[in-house]
Amino acid sequence: xxxxxxxxxxxxxxxxxxxxxxxxxxxxxxxxxxxxxxxxxxxxxxxxxxxxxxxxxxxxxxxxxxxxxxxxxxxxxxxxxxxxxxxxxxxxxxxxxxxxxxxxxxxxxxxxxxxxxxxxxxxxxxxxxxxxxxxxxxxxxxxxxxxxxxxxxxxxxxxxxxxxxxxxxxxxxxxxxxxxxxxxxxxxxxxxxxxxxxxxxxxxxxxxxxxxxxxxxxxxxxxxxxxxxxxxxxxxxxxxxxxxxxxxxxxxxxxxxxxxxxxxxxxxxxxxxxxxxxxxxxxxxxxxxxxxxxxxxxxxxxxxxxxxxxxxxxxxxxxxxxxxxxxxxxxxxxxxxxxxxxxxxxxxxxxxxxxxxxxxxxxxxxxxxxxxxxxxxxxxxxxxxxxxxxxxxxxxxxxxxxxxx
Length: 405
Hints:
The protein has helices at residues 25-34, 52-57, 65-80, 85-95, 99-113, 118-123, 131-143, 146-202, 209-243, 246-258, 262-283, 288-297, 302-316, 321-326, 333-345, 348-404, and strands at residues 3-9, 15-21, 38-44. It is mostly helical.
């Protein structure tokens, strides 16, 4: 039965929005009136996102990663339980907490009821469901294992979100310390240093070199702070424009992989995404070349993506995946060895899952080590800067005290 999105006014004069199933828009209006609602807008849910009013309602709104994981997990559970796809989508639409999610699921259901495949219906909402998501759903539909594929996909999204959250939380404290340090130093240089040092400037006393330097820096910041912000913003914008070009971005990503500390984090994060995605695609029965292409598209580092493109060419020519990746020396040796073991035993999926789990644990360990090392270094740096400012203020006082004696 088609779904219709509606806006109506209840007996208290409040606006009600939602989705209703009916044979036609006329029947939907009748059903709303039977519920004591005065319909204002009744339109097919499948076209709500393309209509002008639907575009206005969904402007700036998007399915969050948490909602995406929850939708995938619940849909997988309902399908594994034996519920038909359209009924499962109807259940999810009814129990959605946010209005946008309700309309989105109702729109997907309307397309499915109209004869569209689930992957085809998701393609109409590419903003909420990326290419890799739709590719996995399509593979599940073709192999008849949609429920199982969605379950593995939900595991992947939840693990990816958890890993990203752990990394963000680990770097939150150093970022907060850095911002507070910059604020304190700016306040000291722009207000405290001039107030104290100007007392000695009027006495025509020869100031120490460190005091002269701090006073000059203070005057510069007070007079040209806007220029500093403008230059920093300009450099940031120019850098983004340069990195948006394929050549410079590839060179930067190559350099990033070779960086002493950051390179290991970037390599590990992309390895986890690649191994997890390839494991899901392999379990869904996707051909190896298509699976490699889809897994390569999930990589954020263009240098590693280029390595996968080269590996695809080698696999197409008859080389095994483990040998194609080993020749590049970009991915961790553990991943290559586990893939080789999987190829020998005929169970590549399990080995890819193990590689993803191991690399994820290693990435967490490196992140915690880095942040644990950064915290005291930031505190020492802040203390050193404050010490210089204190010396710049105290040196004239000590010098004046010696002259008086």
